Give the backbone structure.
Amino acid sequence: MLTERLLAVLFDGLIFGAWLFLVSAGLTFVYGVLRVLNVAHGSFYALGAYLAATLVGLVVGRGLSPALTYPALVLAALLVGLTVGPAMERLLLRRLAGRDEVTGLLLTFAVLLIFEDVIKLIWGVTPWAADAPYGALGQLKLGAVTYAVYPLALIGVAALMGVLLWFLTGRTAFGKLVSAVIADREVSAALGVDVGRVSNLAFSLGTFLAALGGALVAPMISVVPGISVEVIVIAFAVTVIGGLGNVAGAALGALVVGLVRTSALYFFPELDLFLVYALMTLVLIFRPYGLFGRAEIRRI
Amino acid sequence: MAALVRRMLAIGFKSLILVGMLVAACAPAPAAPTQQPSGRQAVPGAPSEIKIGLVTFLSGAASGPFGIPARNAAEVWVDKLNREGGIGGAQIKLVIVDENVPTDQQVVQLRRLALDEKVDLVIGYISSANCLAVAPVAEELKLLTVLFDCGTNQVFEEAKYKYVFRTAAHTGIDGIGAARYLLTVKPDVKTVAGLNQDYAWGRDSWEIFIRALRKLKPDVQVLDTLWPRLQQNEFSGEISKLLALRPEVIFTSFWGGDFVSFINQGRPRGVFDQMTVLFNNDGANIEEFGKDLPDGIIIGFRGPHWIEYPDPKENPLQKEFIDLYRAKYGRYPMPHGSYHVVQALQGVKAAYEKAIKATGRWPSVDDVIKAFEYLEFDSPSGRISMAIGYGHQAVEPAVYGITKFDPQLGFSRLDRVKVFPVKCVNPPDGVKTLDWIEQGFPGAQC
Amino acid sequence: MRRVFKGLGLGLVGLGLLGAPWLLPGWLLFLLSLALAKGLVVLGVLVLMWGGLVSFGHGLYFAAGAYTVAFLAKFLGVREAALGLLAAALLNGVLAGLLGLFLSRYRAIFFGMLSVAFSMILYAFLLKFYFITGGTDGLRVPIPTVLGFEVSARDIRTVNYFVNLVFGLLGLFAAWRLSRSPLGYLMRGVKDNEVRVEYMGASVKATVYGVYLFSGVLGGLGGALVALSVGHVAPDLAYWTTSGEFVFVAILGGTGSVLSPFLASALFELVRNYAIKLSPYTWQLSLGLVLLGIIFFYPEGLWGLYEWVKGRWRPKSSSKPSI
């Protein structure tokens, strides 16, 4: 009985952890590159989810093969990443160069408010379902409990995404440019790096990641108003636990939160709500740079 | 050039803010358009229009299932009432306000409606927290306030108000009705589990249901109670645990996004094949679900607020409501926000008309309140009576049924419907719901 | 001549504030009342900003103060406003004293994050212990007595306004004194260069700790005043959006003056209410656009607007153009 439970904790913890990583990777990436705590992340997530629901609806409505719904999810995220991302960086964020981090945060908060209503004006308030990709993968029986394959597959997708991000930031020329810009904008510019372009690309990538999180999660949930605000808190907590700005940290944070929350569900269901915040507080007190972060030397 | 444009923009914006501040500081209330009522003869002293503040969720999680449907229904119904001469010859004008603001702003908005918009009355509030917060303020403002949708039984059980009414039943009927219905379809039920959102409404719903069930069938065993976050949306863990525990029945007060997500995630995993799931309050998305809503779910809508109950053939108002709503929005009115707001409008109209009849002139607030207490009026949800809470709280029968897909309709209809009469699920006037359950439902007539 | 004008202006403002209950329509008075109470919290955020610290968790003190008043009424039957405010100030002082031990070690984004984390724990607590706190339904706060006098329901909002005004002025005075005290100067020093502050023989940690205490007490008082004015407390007082709003208002006002939190608070309440009034279905969009405009055109905040107006009015003055 206990081993069965522990196994279930492991599975559900991984599923929840993958979910968390998908919805928070974009937030931590953008912070890492641009030093902006992007509250509008929630809006991009919601945009990705709504657009995914629309495209999936189109695919299903035309009677096309359900297999086509998977590229539709990615396409939705790409569309958001290629339009909203560059536009927001170019038109809004870039104008804040030289202002402090708080201003950036407040700016993105204003953008969140605006998108809240824009999304409502475009998609209305009735729930959008995108569950075709979810059902098409079928089920899997593990012991007495049936699992849907889609969320299990998300574990793989999340892992793949983590590896790709790690590769992109650590092993490619683009990644090196980004690190240079993070380390010192002015020196990078002086050395001939097109800082504006790098920032624009990086922010667009972050937007894409947020939208991808929304698009991949959309088949499991109902896409309704308010999901943007809900996701920020949880993504923020995961990001902080892993270390702000650190993609690998976010993966670890997601895993830890996923497992802890699921164990609580099994062993102390009343504690649920507390746990994430308590974990975040403890991490901040004992390891302020996150479980995975390294302390930076404070500039004097 | 760009700099010049930016400078002009900046100056323009700054001036705009200044002007805005000035206007805001000394804006007079906009003059009410004087428009002669058409049709029916006006009552002596009747104004040309009666202004009703409507507070409902226009944004946020509760706007989809309850808030916007309520606004839509209110607009349809007000059009209809105005075509028929309004209330005592006065045309109804709605002033709509978003309920999706923090509590202190809720109070500000109510004051603004009363003192700035100068509304004659307010119909509003879906969230229980908001009902509890605004009721004393309505009292202070001496503003007739009709709560239309919120469920908490505390409003009139913990306090007494003169200016506050609620034209929908409180959530007592949902929990007691659920327990009674469960025992009619599954008389031998042994094990239940609770899956409720971790906030006041979830707690209240579970509390009333489980107490009523235990009273009616003391040997029922609770296997687990799970309290996910509100709008958590991801329930893999909860579903796994429930599948392993295998309770016969899951009781849940999920609504909106959580309702849809739980069904989407639970259906492929066999939740709805292996156990009976009982939802106590949300059916707003049944039409959207189409054929994807599993059969065999026990569902209730906080009263008789379903397109077939009351039967449109027997209740002309119900038929009219469904027709008008479909004509304007191309879909059916779904429970319960839409029905509840129409109940409120019907109640207000009936109270005004009764007061007009009694006084022979346009009534004062006190006249309307006197007429409203213990009032009975017709609505698309049947005949509503303000029978408890010292005449301020409506009672309604509880309606529960089991979902069954109907290919002709294109979505699920209710099967094995059972209507529990008013006296079967509502405590008598002056008795608190939980006390009534504890005492074993004295005086219940089922 | 200038002094005469200044005196005249101040006198007019004073008269306006005193006469507000008779000059303003009831809902605007209530808005002003709230703005005064919340202005105190924003002031608490502002004094931390002198040291470059941004507290994204002041909802914690706001809620703690408000619930203190509600708990006193619910469990001890105490409705006296003075006692409620005193208890809120004391309790929040203790709370800030405890949390300050952790927070005074943190800077920049970490200070903000830890303060958010603390406030979310309180939020979860308020939600979870619903049998004490009423959960999301919150708790009622009965009409208070003021210094032992019963206040009728008709007069309570006027009384509330004056209580809030008195505390607003007290807070203003205290913050003004603080800004000119050694502690205030040290706090600004912390922002510029911590090492220099240490070399001067002062303790950075003690400085931040002291200001944080002051800030927490202000937050608690603001919360208690809001509870008394609104008559209901709910967990959303501690939610991150509430805290974010305080920071926003602080930035909106600008860090130039201890007066700006109150002005900004009043302006923010007005803008939000007019957004809700004029575009009920898209008020968040309108509010967001106004906020964007302020961020881009008023980097110095509302105080910058004041300077700009002053500059327009008297072109000779040396205030720099704001673009």
